[in-house]
Amino acid sequence: MRPSLLLASTILFSTGAAAQSTALEVLAPNQTLLEVQSTGQSYVAPDQASLTGGVVTFATTSREAADSNAQAMNQVVAALKKAGVPARDIQTQSVSLDPQFNYDRQGGEPPRITGYQARNSVTVRIRDVKKASDMLTVLFEAGANNVSGPFFSIEDDSKAVAEARNDAVAEAKAEADAYASAFGMRVAKVLRISERQRSASYEPIIVTGSRIGGAGAPPPPPPPPSPISATTVEVGEMQQQVTIWVDFALEPG
After folding, report:
1. Counting beta carbons within 10 angstroms of the beta carbon of residue 236, is it exposed (0 to 12), middle (13 to 18) or buried (19 or more)?
2. How far, in Å, are 53, 140, 145, 211, 238 from residue 148 at the CA level?
3. Do 123 and 187 belong together in one domain?
4. Taking 70 as the threshold, does the pLDDT of residue 13 lie above it?
5. 119 and 68 in one domain?
6. Which helix (H) or strand (E) holds 69?
7. 133 plus 169 within the same structural domain
8. pLDDT tens across 182-216, in order?
9. At 230, is the pLDDT very low, low, confident or very high (cuts 50, 70, 90)?
10. In what order do the strands lie in the sheet with 5-9?
11. Are 85 and 105 part of one and the same domain?
């Protein structure tokens, strides 16, 4: 990443932000302030994942929609536990019950309730990423018709952060040396280091299964017969980034 920098002589620099003034106070009369921003990166394979699985049901009455949804969702949760997922790794994400309307836009009639849609979904934490594909199959076979994921993460990112931070420091040093050389100077000392940003990113592989229609759609058809083909899941890598600002004191070489 190209750095942003601030190069100012102690003789000409008389005003500025409080942080810059503080840095200038520790400069010698023949020194110049150089401020560099650098971003370091590291890559690591994720070691855990999560899935969101749920059931969407339609019925004529709210009671029927809620009852059928509860029965179907109980089957999904039971299947997850039977597959070895502990209760602490299954968390309800959302529960909803909404009326479905028929809008007569030409006749000017008020919206009419045609039925009800019930939703219930859980988030499943998978502590072994190799089992992500198996858990997707469990959800599909149990009747889940609203599934998304996997979403990968790192349980302990301290090593990846340290590697990214070291990379950022090395880049900042290299940039400081390059600027100092270009101006016929050398790096005398480091005045201040500030870490501004830390982030982890991943291009998620999204597998979405849905056997429902939109509002007012007929009830979903029954799930396909077992066995369901396993969904391919590639783990890949996550990118960890650390951004730092470093103030250097330069002096004539």
Report:
1. middle
2. 7, 11, 10, 13, 19
3. no
4. no
5. yes
6. helix 62-82
7. no
8. 999 999 999 999 997 777 765 443 333 433 333 44
9. confident
10. 5-9, 32-44, 238-252, 185-201
11. yes
